[in-house]
Write a structure and sequence with these properties.
Chain lengths: 106, 421
Protein backbone atom coordinates (compact mmCIF):
# COMPACT_ATOMS: atom_id res chain seq x y z
CA UNK A 1 0.00 0.00 0.00
CA UNK A 2 3.05 2.31 0.35
CA UNK A 3 5.68 3.35 -2.24
CA UNK A 4 8.39 0.65 -2.52
CA UNK A 5 11.07 2.64 -0.63
CA UNK A 6 8.85 2.67 2.43
CA UNK A 7 8.03 -1.05 2.41
CA UNK A 8 9.32 -1.58 5.94
CA UNK A 9 6.48 0.62 7.22
CA UNK A 10 3.83 -1.65 5.68
CA UNK A 11 3.33 -3.35 9.03
CA UNK A 12 2.01 -0.06 10.44
CA UNK A 13 -0.82 -0.01 7.88
CA UNK A 14 -3.37 0.38 10.70
CA UNK A 15 -2.06 3.95 11.12
CA UNK A 16 -3.08 4.89 7.57
CA UNK A 17 -6.27 6.72 8.55
CA UNK A 18 -8.40 9.15 6.57
CA UNK A 19 -9.32 11.75 9.16
CA UNK A 20 -8.00 13.51 12.24
CA UNK A 21 -10.80 12.17 14.46
CA UNK A 22 -9.74 8.62 13.51
CA UNK A 23 -6.09 9.39 14.16
CA UNK A 24 -6.86 11.07 17.47
CA UNK A 25 -9.04 8.13 18.56
CA UNK A 26 -6.29 5.66 17.65
CA UNK A 27 -3.79 7.68 19.67
CA UNK A 28 -6.04 7.58 22.75
CA UNK A 29 -6.68 3.85 22.26
CA UNK A 30 -2.99 2.93 21.86
CA UNK A 31 -0.45 2.04 24.52
CA UNK A 32 2.75 4.05 24.80
CA UNK A 33 4.66 0.92 23.68
CA UNK A 34 2.62 0.72 20.49
CA UNK A 35 3.08 4.38 19.73
CA UNK A 36 6.80 4.23 20.56
CA UNK A 37 7.28 1.32 18.15
CA UNK A 38 5.48 3.19 15.39
CA UNK A 39 7.35 6.43 16.09
CA UNK A 40 10.76 4.73 16.19
CA UNK A 41 10.13 3.00 12.88
CA UNK A 42 8.48 5.91 11.07
CA UNK A 43 10.43 8.94 12.29
CA UNK A 44 13.63 8.19 10.30
CA UNK A 45 11.40 8.01 7.18
CA UNK A 46 9.75 11.39 7.74
CA UNK A 47 12.30 13.49 5.87
CA UNK A 48 12.61 10.95 3.01
CA UNK A 49 8.81 10.80 2.82
CA UNK A 50 8.54 14.60 2.62
CA UNK A 51 11.22 14.58 -0.09
CA UNK A 52 9.46 11.79 -1.99
CA UNK A 53 6.11 13.61 -1.79
CA UNK A 54 7.73 16.76 -3.19
CA UNK A 55 7.60 14.97 -6.56
CA UNK A 56 3.79 15.03 -6.67
CA UNK A 57 1.06 17.69 -6.47
CA UNK A 58 -0.68 17.15 -3.14
CA UNK A 59 -4.17 17.38 -4.65
CA UNK A 60 -3.48 14.56 -7.09
CA UNK A 61 -1.46 11.92 -5.25
CA UNK A 62 -1.24 8.33 -6.52
CA UNK A 63 -2.74 5.81 -4.06
CA UNK A 64 0.58 4.70 -2.52
CA UNK A 65 1.80 8.27 -2.04
CA UNK A 66 -1.53 9.25 -0.52
CA UNK A 67 -1.24 6.38 1.97
CA UNK A 68 2.27 7.52 2.83
CA UNK A 69 1.04 11.04 3.55
CA UNK A 70 -1.79 9.73 5.75
CA UNK A 71 0.69 7.51 7.60
CA UNK A 72 2.93 10.51 8.24
CA UNK A 73 -0.09 12.47 9.54
CA UNK A 74 -0.35 9.72 12.17
CA UNK A 75 3.34 10.16 13.00
CA UNK A 76 2.60 13.85 13.62
CA UNK A 77 -0.32 12.79 15.82
CA UNK A 78 1.80 10.49 18.03
CA UNK A 79 4.73 12.90 18.18
CA UNK A 80 3.18 14.74 21.13
CA UNK A 81 2.68 11.66 23.33
CA UNK A 82 6.17 10.40 22.45
CA UNK A 83 8.27 13.56 22.33
CA UNK A 84 6.53 15.57 25.03
CA UNK A 85 3.80 14.11 27.20
CA UNK A 86 4.94 10.53 27.88
CA UNK A 87 1.23 9.70 27.82
CA UNK A 88 -1.50 9.57 25.19
CA UNK A 89 -3.63 12.41 26.53
CA UNK A 90 -2.64 16.04 26.84
CA UNK A 91 -1.72 16.47 30.52
CA UNK A 92 -3.95 18.85 32.48
CA UNK A 93 -6.63 18.59 29.83
CA UNK A 94 -9.04 16.66 32.09
CA UNK A 95 -12.48 16.34 30.55
CA UNK A 96 -11.85 19.06 27.98
CA UNK A 97 -12.30 18.07 24.36
CA UNK A 98 -12.00 19.84 21.06
CA UNK A 99 -13.51 18.11 18.07
CA UNK A 100 -12.10 18.65 14.65
CA UNK A 101 -15.10 19.38 12.43
CA UNK A 102 -13.39 20.47 9.22
CA UNK A 103 -10.04 19.54 7.65
CA UNK A 104 -8.44 19.81 4.23
CA UNK A 105 -8.86 16.40 2.62
CA UNK A 106 -6.10 14.87 0.53
CA UNK B 1 12.84 42.88 34.38
CA UNK B 2 11.42 44.59 31.30
CA UNK B 3 12.59 43.36 27.92
CA UNK B 4 10.26 45.44 25.78
CA UNK B 5 9.50 49.14 26.30
CA UNK B 6 6.22 50.31 27.81
CA UNK B 7 4.40 53.51 26.85
CA UNK B 8 5.20 56.86 28.48
CA UNK B 9 2.22 56.56 30.82
CA UNK B 10 4.28 53.93 32.65
CA UNK B 11 2.07 50.98 31.78
CA UNK B 12 -0.18 49.84 28.97
CA UNK B 13 -3.20 50.01 31.27
CA UNK B 14 -2.59 53.54 32.56
CA UNK B 15 -2.42 54.75 28.99
CA UNK B 16 -6.18 54.32 29.05
CA UNK B 17 -7.22 55.99 32.31
CA UNK B 18 -10.87 54.92 31.88
CA UNK B 19 -9.79 51.31 32.51
CA UNK B 20 -8.51 51.99 36.03
CA UNK B 21 -6.14 49.62 37.77
CA UNK B 22 -8.37 48.32 40.57
CA UNK B 23 -9.22 44.65 40.99
CA UNK B 24 -12.00 43.49 38.65
CA UNK B 25 -15.29 42.06 39.84
CA UNK B 26 -16.31 38.81 38.14
CA UNK B 27 -19.99 38.79 39.11
CA UNK B 28 -20.53 39.47 35.38
CA UNK B 29 -19.53 35.87 34.65
CA UNK B 30 -21.79 34.08 37.13
CA UNK B 31 -24.99 36.13 37.50
CA UNK B 32 -27.86 34.73 35.36
CA UNK B 33 -29.63 38.11 35.36
CA UNK B 34 -26.48 39.78 34.05
CA UNK B 35 -26.27 37.19 31.29
CA UNK B 36 -29.85 38.01 30.25
CA UNK B 37 -28.88 41.69 30.16
CA UNK B 38 -25.83 40.90 28.03
CA UNK B 39 -27.95 39.08 25.48
CA UNK B 40 -30.04 42.20 24.96
CA UNK B 41 -27.41 44.87 25.38
CA UNK B 42 -24.51 43.20 23.60
CA UNK B 43 -25.48 40.34 21.32
CA UNK B 44 -28.70 41.84 19.94
CA UNK B 45 -27.04 45.08 18.92
CA UNK B 46 -23.44 44.48 17.89
CA UNK B 47 -21.92 43.12 14.70
CA UNK B 48 -21.35 39.36 14.96
CA UNK B 49 -19.01 37.51 12.62
CA UNK B 50 -20.66 34.29 11.49
CA UNK B 51 -18.46 33.11 8.65
CA UNK B 52 -16.36 33.80 5.56
CA UNK B 53 -17.37 34.44 1.97
CA UNK B 54 -15.45 31.30 0.89
CA UNK B 55 -18.25 29.29 2.56
CA UNK B 56 -20.68 30.54 -0.10
CA UNK B 57 -18.59 30.99 -3.26
CA UNK B 58 -21.36 30.31 -5.81
CA UNK B 59 -24.97 31.31 -6.42
CA UNK B 60 -27.23 29.10 -4.29
CA UNK B 61 -24.57 28.19 -1.72
CA UNK B 62 -25.93 28.56 1.78
CA UNK B 63 -25.22 27.74 5.42
CA UNK B 64 -27.18 28.07 8.64
CA UNK B 65 -25.92 29.52 11.91
CA UNK B 66 -27.52 28.72 15.26
CA UNK B 67 -27.47 31.73 17.57
CA UNK B 68 -28.89 30.53 20.88
CA UNK B 69 -27.69 33.72 22.55
CA UNK B 70 -30.28 35.71 20.62
CA UNK B 71 -32.79 32.86 20.29
CA UNK B 72 -32.59 32.52 16.56
CA UNK B 73 -31.15 30.61 13.65
CA UNK B 74 -30.00 32.36 10.49
CA UNK B 75 -29.62 31.23 6.92
CA UNK B 76 -26.88 32.89 4.89
CA UNK B 77 -27.14 32.52 1.11
CA UNK B 78 -25.59 33.88 -2.07
CA UNK B 79 -28.35 35.12 -4.39
CA UNK B 80 -28.63 35.12 -8.19
CA UNK B 81 -27.28 38.69 -8.11
CA UNK B 82 -24.15 37.31 -6.30
CA UNK B 83 -25.12 39.22 -3.14
CA UNK B 84 -24.74 37.45 0.20
CA UNK B 85 -27.80 37.88 2.42
CA UNK B 86 -28.84 36.68 5.86
CA UNK B 87 -32.38 35.78 6.90
CA UNK B 88 -34.03 34.51 10.02
CA UNK B 89 -34.45 30.80 9.39
CA UNK B 90 -38.22 30.88 9.84
CA UNK B 91 -41.05 30.19 7.40
CA UNK B 92 -43.53 33.03 7.07
CA UNK B 93 -46.51 30.67 6.94
CA UNK B 94 -46.59 29.22 10.44
CA UNK B 95 -43.09 29.52 11.76
CA UNK B 96 -41.45 26.22 10.88
CA UNK B 97 -37.69 26.30 10.73
CA UNK B 98 -37.01 26.61 7.03
CA UNK B 99 -33.56 25.12 6.43
CA UNK B 100 -32.41 22.04 8.32
CA UNK B 101 -31.70 18.34 7.77
CA UNK B 102 -32.58 15.49 10.11
CA UNK B 103 -32.01 17.46 13.34
CA UNK B 104 -33.43 20.99 13.60
CA UNK B 105 -30.73 22.12 16.07
CA UNK B 106 -27.80 21.20 13.83
CA UNK B 107 -26.13 23.66 11.49
CA UNK B 108 -26.23 22.69 7.82
CA UNK B 109 -24.72 23.87 4.55
CA UNK B 110 -25.37 23.13 0.90
CA UNK B 111 -26.47 24.40 -2.46
CA UNK B 112 -30.01 24.95 -3.72
CA UNK B 113 -32.09 26.83 -6.29
CA UNK B 114 -34.72 27.82 -3.75
CA UNK B 115 -35.81 27.04 -0.18
CA UNK B 116 -38.87 24.86 0.28
CA UNK B 117 -40.52 24.56 3.68
CA UNK B 118 -40.88 20.97 4.88
CA UNK B 119 -44.28 21.67 6.41
CA UNK B 120 -46.62 22.95 3.64
CA UNK B 121 -44.13 23.53 0.81
CA UNK B 122 -44.04 27.32 0.66
CA UNK B 123 -41.09 28.29 -1.50
CA UNK B 124 -38.66 31.21 -1.29
CA UNK B 125 -36.06 32.22 -3.85
CA UNK B 126 -32.40 32.87 -3.06
CA UNK B 127 -33.16 36.54 -2.49
CA UNK B 128 -35.71 35.64 0.18
CA UNK B 129 -38.88 36.38 -1.80
CA UNK B 130 -41.89 34.15 -1.37
CA UNK B 131 -42.48 32.57 -4.78
CA UNK B 132 -44.96 29.74 -4.21
CA UNK B 133 -47.84 29.12 -1.84
CA UNK B 134 -49.49 25.70 -1.77
CA UNK B 135 -53.23 26.12 -2.52
CA UNK B 136 -52.82 29.84 -2.66
CA UNK B 137 -56.54 30.30 -3.40
CA UNK B 138 -57.45 29.08 0.10
CA UNK B 139 -55.81 32.15 1.70
CA UNK B 140 -57.45 35.50 2.31
CA UNK B 141 -56.04 38.42 0.31
CA UNK B 142 -52.54 37.02 0.60
CA UNK B 143 -50.00 39.13 -1.28
CA UNK B 144 -46.82 37.10 -1.66
CA UNK B 145 -44.78 40.31 -1.80
CA UNK B 146 -45.58 40.86 1.88
CA UNK B 147 -44.29 37.48 3.05
CA UNK B 148 -40.65 37.29 2.09
CA UNK B 149 -38.10 35.90 4.54
CA UNK B 150 -37.25 38.26 7.37
CA UNK B 151 -33.87 39.78 6.54
CA UNK B 152 -31.07 40.53 8.99
CA UNK B 153 -28.43 43.24 8.49
CA UNK B 154 -25.51 41.53 6.76
CA UNK B 155 -22.25 43.21 5.75
CA UNK B 156 -18.84 41.97 4.66
CA UNK B 157 -15.44 43.12 5.88
CA UNK B 158 -12.29 41.64 4.28
CA UNK B 159 -14.28 38.53 3.37
CA UNK B 160 -15.70 38.07 6.87
CA UNK B 161 -19.52 37.91 6.94
CA UNK B 162 -21.08 39.84 9.83
CA UNK B 163 -24.71 40.15 10.90
CA UNK B 164 -26.45 42.55 13.25
CA UNK B 165 -29.95 42.04 14.66
CA UNK B 166 -30.30 45.75 15.26
CA UNK B 167 -31.74 47.38 12.11
CA UNK B 168 -30.46 50.76 13.34
CA UNK B 169 -26.87 49.66 13.91
CA UNK B 170 -24.18 51.83 12.37
CA UNK B 171 -22.38 50.35 9.33
CA UNK B 172 -19.93 47.51 9.96
CA UNK B 173 -16.81 49.34 8.73
CA UNK B 174 -17.55 52.19 11.09
CA UNK B 175 -18.10 49.74 13.95
CA UNK B 176 -14.77 47.99 13.34
CA UNK B 177 -13.18 51.43 13.26
CA UNK B 178 -9.45 52.06 13.33
CA UNK B 179 -8.64 48.53 14.45
CA UNK B 180 -10.42 47.03 11.47
CA UNK B 181 -8.96 49.58 9.09
CA UNK B 182 -5.41 48.76 10.18
CA UNK B 183 -5.82 45.12 9.12
CA UNK B 184 -7.42 45.82 5.73
CA UNK B 185 -5.46 44.48 2.81
CA UNK B 186 -4.14 41.39 4.58
CA UNK B 187 -4.35 38.51 2.06
CA UNK B 188 -7.12 36.58 3.86
CA UNK B 189 -8.54 35.54 0.47
CA UNK B 190 -5.39 33.50 -0.29
CA UNK B 191 -5.75 31.47 2.91
CA UNK B 192 -8.54 29.09 2.05
CA UNK B 193 -7.33 25.80 3.49
CA UNK B 194 -9.22 25.41 6.75
CA UNK B 195 -8.99 23.28 9.88
CA UNK B 196 -12.08 23.80 12.07
CA UNK B 197 -12.63 22.81 15.71
CA UNK B 198 -15.58 22.98 18.04
CA UNK B 199 -16.29 22.27 21.71
CA UNK B 200 -18.94 23.01 24.25
CA UNK B 201 -17.26 24.57 27.27
CA UNK B 202 -18.70 24.80 30.79
CA UNK B 203 -17.81 28.42 31.43
CA UNK B 204 -19.05 31.92 30.79
CA UNK B 205 -18.04 33.06 27.29
CA UNK B 206 -15.89 35.88 28.65
CA UNK B 207 -13.65 33.50 30.60
CA UNK B 208 -12.38 31.84 27.42
CA UNK B 209 -11.76 35.21 25.81
CA UNK B 210 -9.84 36.09 28.98
CA UNK B 211 -7.72 32.98 28.49
CA UNK B 212 -6.83 33.88 24.91
CA UNK B 213 -6.53 37.63 25.46
CA UNK B 214 -3.44 37.29 27.64
CA UNK B 215 -0.22 35.35 27.12
CA UNK B 216 0.79 35.80 30.77
CA UNK B 217 -0.30 32.16 31.28
CA UNK B 218 1.67 30.74 28.37
CA UNK B 219 5.07 30.07 29.98
CA UNK B 220 3.30 28.45 32.96
CA UNK B 221 0.28 26.53 31.67
CA UNK B 222 2.03 25.41 28.49
CA UNK B 223 5.50 24.88 29.90
CA UNK B 224 5.58 21.15 29.16
CA UNK B 225 5.13 21.86 25.46
CA UNK B 226 8.67 23.20 25.11
CA UNK B 227 11.92 21.31 25.65
CA UNK B 228 12.82 21.31 29.35
CA UNK B 229 15.65 23.78 29.05
CA UNK B 230 13.61 26.12 26.90
CA UNK B 231 10.60 25.90 29.25
CA UNK B 232 12.71 26.98 32.22
CA UNK B 233 14.09 29.91 30.28
CA UNK B 234 10.61 31.01 29.19
CA UNK B 235 9.29 30.72 32.74
CA UNK B 236 12.18 32.86 33.96
CA UNK B 237 11.42 35.56 31.37
CA UNK B 238 7.65 35.49 31.85
CA UNK B 239 5.61 37.16 29.17
CA UNK B 240 5.73 40.72 27.91
CA UNK B 241 3.82 41.94 24.88
CA UNK B 242 5.42 44.05 22.17
CA UNK B 243 2.38 46.25 21.98
CA UNK B 244 -1.24 46.70 23.08
CA UNK B 245 -3.87 48.83 21.44
CA UNK B 246 -7.34 49.55 22.71
CA UNK B 247 -9.86 51.28 20.47
CA UNK B 248 -13.09 50.69 22.32
CA UNK B 249 -14.92 48.39 22.01
CA UNK B 250 -12.07 46.42 20.38
CA UNK B 251 -8.53 45.63 21.50
CA UNK B 252 -5.38 43.89 20.32
CA UNK B 253 -2.08 42.49 21.59
CA UNK B 254 1.07 42.07 19.55
CA UNK B 255 3.46 39.37 20.73
CA UNK B 256 6.95 38.08 20.27
CA UNK B 257 7.50 34.97 18.15
CA UNK B 258 10.99 33.63 18.38
CA UNK B 259 10.01 30.10 17.35
CA UNK B 260 9.28 30.64 13.69
CA UNK B 261 11.95 29.59 12.88
CA UNK B 262 13.90 29.25 16.15
CA UNK B 263 17.39 30.71 16.40
CA UNK B 264 18.71 27.36 17.50
CA UNK B 265 16.95 24.20 16.21
CA UNK B 266 17.79 22.32 19.42
CA UNK B 267 15.23 24.56 21.17
CA UNK B 268 12.39 22.72 19.48
CA UNK B 269 11.12 19.15 19.26
CA UNK B 270 12.49 16.63 16.72
CA UNK B 271 9.33 16.60 14.61
CA UNK B 272 9.39 20.41 14.39
CA UNK B 273 12.98 20.34 13.17
CA UNK B 274 12.13 17.92 10.36
CA UNK B 275 8.85 19.51 9.30
CA UNK B 276 9.92 23.12 9.95
CA UNK B 277 6.67 23.96 11.69
CA UNK B 278 5.11 24.28 15.12
CA UNK B 279 2.81 26.44 17.21
CA UNK B 280 3.59 29.55 15.18
CA UNK B 281 2.83 27.69 11.96
CA UNK B 282 5.02 26.50 9.07
CA UNK B 283 8.32 28.40 9.24
CA UNK B 284 8.58 28.86 5.49
CA UNK B 285 6.40 31.74 4.29
CA UNK B 286 3.88 30.92 1.57
CA UNK B 287 4.57 32.32 -1.86
CA UNK B 288 1.80 34.95 -2.07
CA UNK B 289 1.45 38.72 -2.41
CA UNK B 290 0.42 40.86 0.53
CA UNK B 291 2.67 39.69 3.37
CA UNK B 292 5.39 42.23 2.69
CA UNK B 293 4.81 44.95 3.70
CA UNK B 294 2.02 44.09 6.14
CA UNK B 295 -0.95 46.43 6.63
CA UNK B 296 -0.07 49.10 9.24
CA UNK B 297 -2.28 47.60 11.96
CA UNK B 298 -0.48 44.24 11.81
CA UNK B 299 2.72 44.17 13.86
CA UNK B 300 1.97 47.82 14.71
CA UNK B 301 5.25 48.22 16.62
CA UNK B 302 7.10 47.01 13.49
CA UNK B 303 9.14 44.79 15.77
CA UNK B 304 11.70 42.42 14.24
CA UNK B 305 10.88 39.68 16.75
CA UNK B 306 7.15 39.85 16.01
CA UNK B 307 5.31 36.51 16.04
CA UNK B 308 1.55 37.02 16.31
CA UNK B 309 -1.12 39.68 16.66
CA UNK B 310 -4.33 38.83 18.43
CA UNK B 311 -7.25 41.13 17.64
CA UNK B 312 -10.38 41.02 19.74
CA UNK B 313 -13.33 42.39 17.82
CA UNK B 314 -16.12 42.97 20.30
CA UNK B 315 -17.99 41.04 21.43
CA UNK B 316 -16.94 37.48 20.58
CA UNK B 317 -14.61 37.33 17.57
CA UNK B 318 -10.85 36.97 17.81
CA UNK B 319 -8.53 37.11 14.84
CA UNK B 320 -4.91 35.99 15.18
CA UNK B 321 -2.48 36.91 12.42
CA UNK B 322 0.77 34.91 12.58
CA UNK B 323 4.13 36.10 11.29
CA UNK B 324 4.73 33.07 9.03
CA UNK B 325 1.67 33.92 6.94
CA UNK B 326 -1.53 32.31 8.16
CA UNK B 327 -4.42 33.23 10.44
CA UNK B 328 -6.67 31.80 13.12
CA UNK B 329 -10.13 32.77 14.30
CA UNK B 330 -11.93 32.13 17.60
CA UNK B 331 -15.64 32.53 18.29
CA UNK B 332 -17.40 32.16 21.62
CA UNK B 333 -21.16 31.61 21.36
CA UNK B 334 -22.91 31.76 24.74
CA UNK B 335 -25.63 29.20 25.43
CA UNK B 336 -26.09 29.99 29.15
CA UNK B 337 -24.40 32.09 31.82
CA UNK B 338 -22.00 29.21 32.46
CA UNK B 339 -21.81 27.55 29.02
CA UNK B 340 -20.70 28.44 25.54
CA UNK B 341 -19.76 26.89 22.25
CA UNK B 342 -16.17 27.54 21.28
CA UNK B 343 -15.13 27.48 17.64
CA UNK B 344 -11.62 27.78 16.25
CA UNK B 345 -10.51 27.82 12.62
CA UNK B 346 -6.99 27.78 11.18
CA UNK B 347 -6.58 29.23 7.68
CA UNK B 348 -3.58 28.45 5.47
CA UNK B 349 -2.56 29.09 1.88
CA UNK B 350 -3.40 25.75 0.20
CA UNK B 351 -0.45 23.34 0.31
CA UNK B 352 1.06 22.45 -3.05
CA UNK B 353 3.16 19.54 -1.81
CA UNK B 354 2.90 16.81 0.78
CA UNK B 355 5.75 18.45 2.67
CA UNK B 356 3.81 21.72 2.98
CA UNK B 357 0.68 19.83 3.96
CA UNK B 358 2.62 17.95 6.68
CA UNK B 359 3.90 21.26 8.05
CA UNK B 360 0.29 22.50 8.27
CA UNK B 361 -0.79 19.24 9.91
CA UNK B 362 1.83 19.73 12.63
CA UNK B 363 0.67 23.33 13.20
CA UNK B 364 -2.96 22.16 13.49
CA UNK B 365 -2.16 19.26 15.82
CA UNK B 366 -0.03 21.57 17.97
CA UNK B 367 -2.83 24.12 18.15
CA UNK B 368 -5.18 21.48 19.53
CA UNK B 369 -2.71 20.34 22.20
CA UNK B 370 -2.45 23.92 23.49
CA UNK B 371 -6.16 24.68 23.25
CA UNK B 372 -7.03 21.58 25.30
CA UNK B 373 -4.85 22.87 28.10
CA UNK B 374 -6.43 26.32 27.81
CA UNK B 375 -9.97 24.94 27.83
CA UNK B 376 -9.51 22.78 30.87
CA UNK B 377 -8.84 25.68 33.26
CA UNK B 378 -12.21 27.22 32.43
CA UNK B 379 -14.73 24.91 34.09
CA UNK B 380 -12.58 24.92 37.21
CA UNK B 381 -12.54 28.72 37.22
CA UNK B 382 -16.28 28.95 36.60
CA UNK B 383 -17.20 26.70 39.52
CA UNK B 384 -14.93 28.56 41.92
CA UNK B 385 -16.13 32.00 40.80
CA UNK B 386 -19.62 30.74 41.55
CA UNK B 387 -18.62 30.12 45.17
CA UNK B 388 -18.25 33.91 45.56
CA UNK B 389 -15.61 33.14 48.17
CA UNK B 390 -13.58 35.76 46.31
CA UNK B 391 -15.30 38.30 44.09
CA UNK B 392 -12.62 40.73 42.91
CA UNK B 393 -9.40 39.87 41.16
CA UNK B 394 -6.22 41.87 40.55
CA UNK B 395 -5.41 42.03 36.84
CA UNK B 396 -1.88 42.92 35.80
CA UNK B 397 -0.67 45.09 32.95
CA UNK B 398 -0.40 42.09 30.59
CA UNK B 399 -4.09 41.43 31.30
CA UNK B 400 -5.23 44.82 30.02
CA UNK B 401 -7.46 43.30 27.33
CA UNK B 402 -9.43 41.34 29.96
CA UNK B 403 -9.92 44.46 31.99
CA UNK B 404 -11.10 46.19 28.83
CA UNK B 405 -13.48 43.38 27.80
CA UNK B 406 -15.26 43.23 31.16
CA UNK B 407 -15.54 47.02 31.26
CA UNK B 408 -16.94 47.30 27.73
CA UNK B 409 -19.54 44.60 28.38
CA UNK B 410 -20.46 46.39 31.61
CA UNK B 411 -20.77 49.71 29.81
CA UNK B 412 -23.08 48.18 27.21
CA UNK B 413 -25.26 46.63 29.88
CA UNK B 414 -25.44 49.90 31.85
CA UNK B 415 -26.14 52.02 28.80
CA UNK B 416 -28.89 49.70 27.65
CA UNK B 417 -30.50 49.67 31.11
CA UNK B 418 -30.38 53.49 31.23
CA UNK B 419 -31.90 53.79 27.77
CA UNK B 420 -34.70 51.47 28.83
CA UNK B 421 -35.27 53.82 31.77
S1 LIG C 1 -44.90 26.51 8.09
FE1 LIG C 1 -43.77 26.66 6.27
S2 LIG C 1 -45.21 26.20 4.77
FE2 LIG C 1 -46.38 26.08 6.57
FE1 LIG D 1 -2.87 29.24 26.01
Amino acid sequence: MLPAEFAELEKFGAWVLETEPERYAKRLASSMEEMQAFYDAAFPHLEPAAAHLDGFPVDDLPEAERNLLLLMFSLVMVSFPIEVWKQARVPDSGAAYLDLVLEPRV
Amino acid sequence: MAFFPKPAAGSWTEQYPELGTAPVNYEDSIDPAYYEAEREAVFRRTWLNIGRIEQVPRVGNYFTKELAVVDTSLVVVRGKDKQIRAFHNICRHRGNKLVWNDYPGEEVKGTCRQFTCKYHAWRYNLEGELTFVQQEGEFFDLDKADFGLKAVRCEIWEGFIFVNLDPDARPLAEYLGEMGKGVEGYPFHEMTEVFGYKAEVGSNWKLFIDAFAEFYHAPVLHQKQATKEEAEKLLGFGFEALHYEVTTPHGMVSAWGGMSPPKDPSMVKPIERVLRSGLFGPWDRPDIEGLEPLPPGVNPARHRAWGVDSFHFFPNFMLLVWAPGWYLTYHYWPTAVDRHIFEAKLYFVPAKTGRQRLAQELAAVTFKEYALQDANTLEATQTMLKSRAVTDFPLNDQEILLRHLHKVVGDHVKEHANAAG
